[in-house]
Amino acid sequence: MRPRPEMFVLDSSRIVSAALLQSYDLHRGAMQTVVGGRSAIDISRLEVVDVDQARAFLLRYGYDVDDPSHIDAIEKNRSQAIGFLRGVLLSRVDLEMPAWLDDLPVLELLLTAAIGLHHADPTIALRQAWACALLRVMHTFAHAENYFQHAYYPQIRESILNRFVEQVGTRQDGSPVLHGRTHDVPLVGFDVKEAKPLRSVVLKLLHKAENVATDLFDHIGVRIVVNRPIDAIFAVRALLDTHTIMFANIKPTRSRNTLVDIDALTREIAGVTQRVEAGLLSEAEATEELNRFQVRPEGDEQTTWNQHSSARYRSMQFTCRQLIRLTNPVWQRLERAKQVARQHLTGDALAMMVAELDSVGVEQEIQFFFPYEVQIMDQESRQEATQGRASYSEYKRRQIVAVRKRVLGRVMALEGLDPDAEPRRLRQTVPLRPLHELLNAR
Q1: Most buried of 36, 179, 225, 361, CB within 10 angstroms?
Q2: pLDDT of amino acid 274
């Protein structure tokens, strides 16, 4: 039976309406990321509708699914992400990651993440939420690799730390001291941060709004511990006086001070100086009074900068950037190859080989700025940081809870779990005594 003409009109109007709506499709999630300041990992679904779009999306992201080496990289990334989800975010939570995510082809993974959020079938909606959760972590692992840090970390670390090592010495009694131009600053401790494990890098990125590794500034860091808050000021001055840190290369948005109120200290110094000039204080009394200064900055600046830090965590910390210069390994190899050619070849063969090994355009030296973090605190603040509520373990716990909610919030909601709930704690167990000890105790 032929359709009535009005059916064509009805169908045509629907087609026109669909085309009109499609022309005004704002791709709201991606649009909010580009111009709205929202992180890519916080959007709820991908905007791809078929395999061709998924393939194009992945290609422009940086992976060609027709290249076996790219597929290997994707699968390595997936394996790391799944290990992170199961080993970190799902630890001590009554939720298991489904096995189908382990080997779902990447194009199907993208299409699954693009399913409508409010699908009528709860099973499909849950699959979409899981696909998005995995892609969030895979994306973060992809950004967590830093080429310069990975390839040249030992050289970068040595170049940065050498400046501090030259300035830190010991007194006759063996106690550490930071040498300054005017006077030395007694130290309680000088610690060097080791390279951050990849999982820790990913965890940190997942709770940052930017979610890119170029915004991690503590791959290398030092912690200087002094006796009194005032000594932290002297330590910064000593580092500046010797140009161990270069003020011109400080990243100002990364500077934080919750240890000493510098404005209050400036007023205190001015008042004490006036009293010394008026003969009301001796220089020794003035020095003793200033050394007791312990006014901290007001407000809760530390926790607004890092929401997972305790308000009781007190320190001065800042990010420096140091110009690193390294011999280019490609240039080195070319030069060595030329030497070998000159030893074993002559005539046209030598000329041809030297021409092939031409190093024009290959810089002899690689140079780039690399960030590192300096943290200065007094002894009381370090004790609070390591033993009190501001301990690293508490910081890490808060961080994991926040990241779990960000990555798996929709999954947990669909499973009827509270994303804000604290994970269950492991029971404290008493280690069993060896059998021979038990026998001897009788």
Answers
A1: 225
A2: 93
